[in-house]
Amino acid sequence: MTEENDGTEAHLPFTGVVVLDLTLARAGPTCVRHFADWGADVIRIEPPEALGEDVIGRRHGSDFQNLHRNKRAIRLDLKSKEGHAVFLRLVERADVVVENMRAPVKDRLKVSWDDLKKVNPRLVYGSISGFGQTGPYRERGGVDQIAQGLGGLMSITGFPAQGPVRVGIPISDLTAGNLLAFGIAMALFDRSRTGKGRWVHTSLLESQIFMLDFQAARYLVKGEVAGQAGNDHPTFTPTGVFPTSDGHMNIAASSGRLWERLCDTLGKPEWKTKPEWNTAAGRLKQRAAVNAAVSDITRHKPSAHWADLFEAAGIPAGPINTIDKVFADPQVQHLGMGTPVHSPLFGDTRMVASPLNVSGASRNIRSTTPEPGAHTDEVLRAAGYPNEAIEKLRASGAI
Q1: C-alpha dist (Å) from residue 98 to 23, 80, 167, 238
Q2: pLDDT class for 9, splitting at 50, 70, 90?
Q3: Do residue 159 and residue 263 come from a single domain?
Q4: What's the rounded Cα separation, in Å, for the pair 146 and 191?
Q5: What are phi and psi for residue 213, nearest 5 degrees?
């Protein structure tokens, strides 16, 4: 509960926005989850048959349930004439459609931007693909690890000479979803001034390259091709993982001032005047020796001991937690990143909270992931279909 809402249900930023969700897998649902969490009426559209996640038994798993909370769900056969007509009626009333189909699929189903903008010129249409909506890879399907490789990330992850290593989370999927949500929000804001919708799209590949950030800039500006640096920062020393008597910890003495503080904290003031180490370039050149010298000291005391000393000295440092320790951390608990929720599947449990904090608005999970088609009749009645028409659609297999 925030001070601003005094315990009452707050107005959420996307209240009144209607989103039709055609997404599968992770990147698209990651985008849509932002809108669902912050008040949009998200209608997830799935085929009448048990396809996709249902077939491989994932729907009732923790991952699927975390991705699709705060939504309504209908079943609709977009391949049928009747089902497609229902979808177009929903589009007429919608603000946003989000999809992550391969280009030939949405063209074949007649649910592309070119198809839907004729039905609703105010529609904001969001797309995620593997490699882009145009170009030689347009029709290829893409998944996170393929984008990590093609986009260069695996070449800079891991230790020197180790060989390519994937990042431990689906970072291309998550980044593409987060960026698309931002793009859709931009288009909605622009529509409030122009009255016109837009097509906003990104891809796993574009998002992955964007996330290369300074490594990409090093190449584009200076021609430097970054390699693997393991747990060390690519350009600053000492910044990385160091042993302690009860495990390991991160230390980031990335500037000259922080280096001097580190020397004093470790009881080695003489390092500050050592000719080979008194510049950033010198420390980088002698990274192995610097890291070994620091490690020879840190390994004799526990992580908590060093964390307290480094905090007092103003040196960024911290533990390396397993997932259980993350959610046991007092700061994480204070931030409420494990949101309490009562799930019909799991009972009283927690799910990952939105990382955003908006004054006057709660980020509580309002509803758990619905069963397939749980809101079909409700949504169609709101769209103007009488009960008789709904039964006809059901009998035809369209819903």
Answers
A1: 7, 20, 26, 44
A2: low
A3: no
A4: 35
A5: 50, -115
Strands 247-252, 239-244: pairing kind: antiparallel
User: Which residues, including other chains, have CB under 8 Å from residue 386's CB and lie 6 or more apart?
Assistant: none
Does residue 65 sit in the same domain as residue 154? Answer: yes
Q: What are the DSSP E strand ranges found in the chain? A: 18-21, 41-46, 72-75, 96-99, 124-129, 199-203, 239-244, 247-252, 317-319, 338-343, 347-352
Range of the domain at 128: 18-212+336-396
233 has catalytic annotation: yes
Both tokens assigned to 174: 């998550």
4: in domain: no
Give Cβ neighbours of residue 307 (< 8 Å, ≥ 6 apart): 249, 317, 318, 319
CA distance 12 to 70: 13
Is the same domain home to 175 and 55? yes
Domain assignment present for residue 329? The answer is no
pTM of model > 0.85: yes
Could you tell me if 166 and 40 lie in one domain?
yes
Q: Checking phi first, is residue 140 left (phi over 0); if not, alpha (psi -120 to 50) or beta?
A: beta
Query: Residue 10: pLDDT band by 50, 70, 90 thresholds?
Result: low
> What is the amino acid identity at position 65?
Q
What is the CB neighbour count within 10 angstroms for residue 268? 14
100-134: buried (b, 16+ CB within 10 Å) or exposed (e) per residue? Answer: bbebeebeebebbbebbbeebeebbbbbbbbbbee
Kindly state whether residue 227 falls inside one of the protein's structural domains. no
The CATH number for 60's domain is 3.40.50.10540
Of 34, 84, 201, 233, which is the active-site residue?
233
Q: What is the pLDDT of residues 154-173, one digit of tens each?
A: 999 999 999 999 999 999 99
**Are 171 and 298 contained in the same domain?**
no
Interval 264-305: pLDDT, tens: 999 999 999 999 999 999 999 999 999 999 999 999 999 999
pLDDT greater than 60 at residue 4: no
Same domain, 283 and 342: no
> How does pLDDT run across 206-263, given as a tens digit for each residue?
999 999 999 999 999 999 999 999 999 999 999 999 999 999 999 999 999 999 999 9
330 touches 323 (CB < 8 A): no
